[in-house]
Structure formats: structure tokens, C-alpha cells
Amino acid sequence: MIVLGIESSCDETAAAVVADGREVRSSVVASQTAVHHPYGGVVPELASRAHIEAIGPVVEQAMADAGLSPEAIDGVAVTRGPGLVGCLLVGFCFAKAWAYGRGLPWVGVDHLEGHLHAVMLAADAPPFPFVALLASGGHTGVYYMEGPRRYTLLGQTRDDAAGEAYDKVAKMLGLGYPGGAVIDDLAGRGDAERIVFTRPYLDKTQFDFSFSGLKTAVHRYIQTHPDTYRTDQADIAAGFQAAVVDVLVHKLLHAAAVHNCPRVVLAGGVAANGGLRARLTAEAAAAGIAAHIPPLAFCGDNAAMIAAAGYHHLQAGCRGALTDDVYSRNTR
Ligand code: KG4
Ligand code: ZN
Asked: What domain of life does the UniProt record list for this protein's source (predicted)?
């Protein structure tokens, strides 16, 4: 089954063609970073307008890159939520019309479920069950994945998402938006032991997260070191990243141990983090657990992951209705 995936929940307009939920035939992502960079964050109205301009060409490009005509598509999967409503509506309405006009089945897909399926696009896609850590700009949680369409949330952040903490720390240091990759890069050049931040484990046996206290600790450090924080940027980034990575890796591996599960998976934009990928790979190997990490191209927002998740819903006979609407918040 060949699925056209469409994603427009935040600041990336994306389309992809994926066969059988695994084989990526094309994946196009038009980023709006340049549009939002001057504002230090995503401006919803500008994002919606940029999606409207990009959606048609992006879908056409994905079809052209796959070398397919629309007749070769068996179904359409599109992000329904959570995200910015104006942004979601652009992709959602476009997908409805694209499918309806061609008499094709289509289905709305949860954005988080999409991220959790990104690893299925990797050459070493894991078998079920597995425990997954989803860390993005809007969400951070641990999931037990029993099979396609069968997963349980074990715990999630009580305040900021991990990616959000990265973005806010980058902003405090004057490094612009989005901040994750910049902090990651800086951290690689810093000393993680010179400026140590308390690890926000909460209860070490549970799977909830909290990153707002860590963000505040970085803010306090900057305020109390006005003369040196600029020259110490790399050490601050390294100290902050070490605290985030310690907590994420501990909770993920602990969840795998509690559920007696031999496989763990990373997902979401923060899964692109070099420090996190390296630490998880090393610690999982030491614990005898297989770590599966999606290729970089499928960690951040993309439509191939939406097609991969939507494939299972379409196969199960789920169909969207023309009266379906998008949703802004996570309802699971
Ligand atoms: O999954 P994603 O593209 O969008 C959401 O669904 O939120 O995640 C975006 C988030 C941003 O907060 C960004 O700063 C973070 O992922 N991010 C990173 C890295 N690359 C992107 N965080 C840490 N290290 C990175 N290398
Ligand atoms: Zn995302």
C-alpha cells in the first residue's frame, strides 16, 4: 500500500510517499525557520500563511521525487493534531480535498503517534514490543508500544517539554530560534563538569518529567554571572545538556527494565541530539538492551512518519470523514 503523508502542525510543511509503512519513496520538508527566526519563536499567523504558500508545491515535489503519478497512491494520511490550529487546517483541508477529488481513502493521524513511528523508517526497524521516549518541542513522554495502534503512555512532562527547554536556554544565551541543534553543537565543545545543574529526576522510579526548574537554574546562573556567562556558553550548554540527557536516558532504560522489554526507541526532534544518541547507545549496550534511533531526517517534523503511522490505520479500515476537524491539544 502506497501512502501519501502530509504534515503541517507547526513550522514545517512536509509531504512524503511511503510504501507499506516502511519504505520511503520520497520525503520533502519545507522549513519556515527563516520566517520565524527574527521573532525568537513560531508566529502562528505567519506559519499558517507560509503553509498555504508551500503545501501545493511540496506535495507535487514529493510525488515527482517518488516518480509516481497520483493514480499510484492508495491512500492519504495527514496530521490532525496536536499543533497550531491554523497550521493544521492547511494540511488537513488540502489532504481531504486531494483524496476526495481522487476517490481515495484518507485518515487523520496524531502527530505524536507519527513521531513514534519514525523508527519504522530506519533500516534496523525494531519488532514490537518496545519502549519509546518521545522528546520534541511540544511533548516529552515515555510509551510502551505493544504493536501498531496499541500503545500506552507511561509518563510525561508536568511542565516544559525537553525541546522547549533547549529552545528557552538558547534564547537566554542569545543563540536564536530554534535552539536545540545550536546548544547540542556548543555542548560538544564544552566541559559538562564545570557548571553542574541538578538533575530533575522527580521520582526515579516513575516516568514523569519536569524541565522548567532546570531552565530556571540556567537562567539564575546567567543572572548571577553577568560578566562571564558569554565566554562560558559552551560549558553552560554542556552542563545543561548533561542534565537533560541523564534524566531522559535513565527514565527510558528504567521503563524498559520495569516492563522487561529488550528494546528501546528514540523519537521526536530531540532524538537528533548527538549527546543523547551517544549516551543512549552506550548505556543500552551496557544493559543488554537494543537501542533503535531513527535517521536524523525523520527525528524532526516530517511527513514520512505520518504516512508510516497512517498506513496501519488505513490497513485497519479507518477512514476520515469530510466533517472531521483538527485538534490543538493532546487528548490522549
Ligand atoms: O519534533 P519536532 O521537530 O517538533 C515538535 O513536534 O515539537 O521537535 C522540535 C524540537 C525543538 O524544540 C528543537 O529545539 C529540538 O526539537 N531539537 C533538538 C535538536 N534538534 C532539534 N534538541 C536537542 N538537540 C538537537 N540536536
Ligand atoms: Zn513534532
From this structure: Bacteria
Top mutation candidate among 270, 276, 302, 329 for ligand 1, by most atoms within 8 Å of CB: 270
> 50-101, pLDDT tens digit by residue?
999 999 999 999 999 999 999 999 999 999 999 999 999 999 999 999 999 9
Considering the domain boundaries, does residue 123 fall inside one?
A: no
Domain hosting 40: range is 2-116+299-315
| pLDDT (tens digit per residue) in 317-328 | 999 999 999 999
Binding residues for Fe cation: 111, 115, 301
Q: How far from 222 is each of 63, 170, 241, CA to CA, in Å?
A: 48, 12, 16
Enter the pTM of the model: 0.97
Which domain CATH number covers 308?
A: 3.30.420.40
Which residues touch 233 (CB under 8 Å, ≥6 apart)?
Answer: 173, 175, 186, 190
197 and 251 housed in the same domain = yes
The verdict on residue 138 lying in a domain is yes
Residues 79, 150: one domain? no
